[in-house]
């Protein structure tokens, strides 16, 4: 396992070898078998005691977990159970959904929350979580975009490392991490869950694998393949993906757990005749644990009987499972501690993350922060007072009682008169008379806060949409309230990027929040009232229209980019125009080719100025050091946090490279008029790309862009010759996270 102390590894291996030597065939198969139940039923306890189950998922009651571990302890060899649960962005206390965590651009705080939440879940007896979800996604129709860290491989990699380090911080109070879904699941065709993907090796290595490499570097010992097929082979049976790439090239030597019944889906995909062949494909691909299909339990004995190779493969898989169990410390007596003391710390951490995850999109004439809290305020919208909906997907262990809504928090802080109305019964609601009532309330208030978006159930697994509009009658509500309101502040709570042109047109300010979790109310209220300042930055591009999807900043070059001011839109084309009248460039006739808001974008309550960008290069090959420095100045009259972003462009390469790639960022807090010199240090690996066979860096020109988002204009260039690059191989890994 990467980065592990060799002594620890040696002890784990010795224990695993010893146990394996004593195991019967049935006990070996049991280690491969994972069962989901929500309680320790008599049948499950019996199966565990007989060594027929090596791991469980979805049992959360500590007493039930104790009963199961006791049964495992009393089994012939006393092998402890892996107890899994989807602790994806919190347990009882929820942080923002992972897309929101990415919007914080604050890996240190994400790591801190993961440590706390792991301790909370571990105190129940859970010892394994199926997280972090590392599927780079460029299609917001896909409901699972909520669970990942957005469109960018590098930002996802940074978050991957933070998440894994946080979850696995201390052996006794941690959860084993399980990065998922290897790999490319986020590229599911048409943003439809479980759909197939076709991804070139170049794209796999440059975009989809790096976050997993970062998670393994940080110590992740388990991984879950994706449901979807990658180039014709579903994840759970994909030998090229799981052996050639995952094991041989990324160097993973831990445990692969299939996704839920994914082995049983191999015949449905059309790559296996039946369950027995599916089990064989799973073994061949090196899938250790069968989550819930029961196929290993049913067929592995028969497969071993038919082919001794299968016994060797079974032994290898069991050995690795046992090693991971030992490395996770499960063979030692488990310490229990109460959840209570951590609740405050968890809420504090979740609320800080919620605050840093909210992205201020517009703020006309300094509408925000609201300066006079003794005035009259209208709080409207179907999501203004929804403790549960604001938690987002994967919140089934959350305690709604510790979640505070925006309305509740504003009521606690507002000193003037406050009126409220949901306007619609829920985000998909249609006008039930509430719209007129809401508009009436807005008309009487000096300020109106309108909270729109999506309920939690509209994103997450299997919750894909073909449209990105505000559901139900929300646009009607928006129009009516906008007509009536003196000052309109729109807050969006959603699980994915939405089309927000209407909100931007109608509102004086728009704050976009990816379901921010238990701390939503205090976080949003403090931002609106100026007790904190917005610092969230978009981890995904916001499209103008769903028809632009996939739209992402790191796209490839086209030979015919659209030129600003030279594109002709549908309504401007003269009747009977000739074929070439639009100039033949890459744009849609009916929408501006730019996004509504670019990746990395987010406003503050102040402005920042960038200048004096300089690059210098020292050393050669593996010792090459690139220093990029820039001065950032707060030119407004409030303190604020800026996220300084560095992008690379490799303009000429053997394989066309993306228009830009994020390579580093730093959050800096600056007082009014304060200036800071920010320095980024990069190495040879940060320049590398994979051409489908290996990593390399080509001599020539490199361009750097520094600024507030992915459209940053301040740039400088450097030229590297072959001697500076050197000829040492770059290895399997690219970037340093
Ligand atoms: C299916 C999901 O795809 C996966 O992400 C999750 O971990 C498992 N179910 C277990 O709940």
Shape: globular
End-to-end separation in angstroms reads 18 Å
- Structural class of the secondary structure composition? alpha/beta
Number of E strands:
25
Number of domains: 4
Give a list of the ligands. 1-deoxynojirimycin
CATH architectural grouping of the largest domain: Alpha-Beta Barrel
Spatial strand order of the main sheet: 11-16-15-14-12-13
In CATH, the homologous superfamily of the largest domain goes by the name Glycoside hydrolase, family 3, N-terminal domain
Total number of helices: 21
What is the helix fraction of residues, given as a range? 25-40%
Q: What is the level 1 CATH name of the largest domain? A: Alpha Beta
Q: Into which percentage range does the β-strand content fall?
A: 15-25%
CATH fold node name of the largest domain: TIM Barrel
Poorly predicted sequence stretches spanning 5 or more consecutive residues: none
Tell me what you see in this structure.
It is a single chain. It contains 21 helices and 25 strands. The chain is an alpha/beta fold. It has four domains: 6-19 and 47-327, Glycoside hydrolase, family 3, N-terminal domain (TIM Barrel); 361-529, 3-Layer(aba) Sandwich (Rossmann fold), CATH 3.40.50.1700; 558-594, no CATH class; 608-725, Immunoglobulins (Immunoglobulin-like). The longest helix has 20 residues, at 308-327. The protein is globular. The mean pLDDT is 96. Bound molecules: 1-deoxynojirimycin (NOJ). Residues 86, 130, 180, 259-260, 461 line the site of 1-deoxynojirimycin (NOJ).
């Amino acid at each position: 396992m990467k980065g592990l102390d060799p002594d620890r590894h040696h002890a784990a291996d010795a224990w695993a070898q010893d146990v394996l030597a004593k195991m019967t065939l049935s006990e070996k198969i049991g280690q491969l078998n994972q069962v989901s139940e929500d309680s320790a039923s008599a049948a499950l306890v019996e199966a565990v005691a007989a060594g027929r189950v090596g791991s469980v998922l979805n049992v959360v009651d500590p007493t039930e977990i104790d009963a199961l571990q006791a049964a495992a302890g009393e089994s012939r060899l006393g092998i402890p159970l892996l107890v899994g649960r989807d602790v994806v962005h919190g347990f009882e206390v929820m942080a923002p959904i992972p897309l929101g965590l990415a919007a914080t651009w604050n890996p240190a705080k994400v790591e801190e929350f993961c440590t706390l939440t792991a301790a909370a879940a571990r105190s129940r007896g859970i010892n394994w979580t199926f997280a972090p979800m590392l599927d780079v996604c460029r299609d917001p129709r896909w409901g699972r975009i909520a669970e990942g860290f957005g469109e960018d491989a590098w930002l996802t990699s940074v978050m991957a490392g933070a998440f894994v380090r946080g979850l696995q911080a201390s052996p006794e109070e941690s959860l084993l991490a399980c990065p998922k879904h290897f790999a490319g699941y986020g590229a599911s065709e048409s943003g439809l869950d479980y759909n197939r993907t076709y991804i070139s090796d170049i794209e796999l290595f440059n975009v989809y694998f790096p976050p997993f490499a970062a998670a393994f570097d940080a110590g992740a010992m388990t991984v879950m393949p994706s449901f979807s097929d990658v180039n014709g082979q579903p994840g759970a049976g994909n030998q090229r993906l799981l052996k050639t790439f995952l094991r041989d090239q990324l160097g993973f030597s831990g445990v692969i757990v299939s996704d839920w019944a994914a082995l049983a889906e191999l015949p449905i995909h059309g790559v296996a005749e039946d369950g027995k062949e599916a089990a064989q494909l799973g073994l061949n691909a090196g899938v250790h644990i069968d989550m819930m299909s029961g196929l290993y339990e049913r067929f592995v004995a028969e497969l071993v009987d038919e082919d001794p190779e299968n016994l060797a493969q079974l032994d290898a898989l069991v050995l690795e499972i046992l090693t991971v169990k030992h490395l996770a410390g499960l063979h030692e007596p488990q310490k229990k501690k109460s959840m209570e003391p951590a609740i405050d710390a968890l809420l504090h951490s979740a609320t800080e993350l919620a605050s840093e995850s909210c992205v201020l999109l517009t703020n006309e004439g300094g509408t925000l922060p609201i300066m006079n809290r003794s005035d009259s305020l209208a709080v409207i919208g179907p999501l203004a007072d929804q403790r549960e909906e604001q938690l987002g997907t994967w919140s089934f262990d959350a305690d709604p009682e510790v979640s505070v809504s925006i309305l509740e928090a504003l009521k606690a802080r507002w000193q003037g008169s406050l009126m409220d109305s949901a306007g619609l019964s829920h985000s998909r609601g249609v006008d039930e008379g509430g719209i007129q009532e809401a508009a009436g309330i807005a008309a009487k208030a000096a300020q109106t806060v309108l909270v729109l978006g999506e309920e939690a159930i509209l994103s997450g697994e299997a919750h894909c949409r073909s449209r990105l509009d505000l559901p139900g009658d929300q646009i009607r509500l928006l129009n009516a309230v906008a007509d009536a309101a003196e000052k309109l502040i729109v807050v969006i709570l959603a699980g994915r990027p939405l089309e927000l042109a209407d909100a931007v047109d109608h509102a004086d300010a728009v704050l976009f929040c990816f379901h921010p979790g238990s701390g939503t109310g205090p976080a949003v209220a403090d931002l609106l009232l100026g007790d904190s300042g917005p610092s969230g930055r978009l981890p995904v591009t916001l499209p103008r229209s769903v028809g632009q999807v996939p739209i992402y900043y790191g796209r490839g070059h086209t030979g015919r980019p659209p030129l600003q001011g030279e594109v002709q839109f549908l309504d401007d084309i003269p009747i009977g125009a000739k074929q070439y009248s639009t100039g033949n460039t890459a744009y849609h006739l009916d929408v501006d080719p730019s996004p509504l808001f670019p990746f990395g974008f987010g406003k503050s309550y102040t402005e920042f100025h960038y200048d004096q960008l300089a690059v210098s290069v020292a050393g050669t090959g593996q010792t090459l050091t690139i220093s990029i420095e820039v001065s950032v100045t707060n030119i407004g009259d409030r303190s604020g946090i800026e996220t300084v972003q560095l992008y690379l462009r490799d303009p000429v390469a053997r394989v066309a490279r993306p228009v830009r790639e994020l390579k580093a960022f730093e959050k800096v807090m600056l007082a009014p008029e304060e200036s800071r010199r920010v320095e980024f240090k990069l190495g040879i690996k940060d320049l590398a790309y994979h051409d489908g066979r290996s990593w390399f860096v080509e001599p020539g020109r490199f361009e750097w862009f520094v600024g507030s988002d992915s459209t940053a204009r301040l740039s400088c260039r450097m030229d590297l010759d072959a001697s500076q690059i050197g000829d040492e191989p770059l290895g399997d890994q690219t970037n340093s996270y």
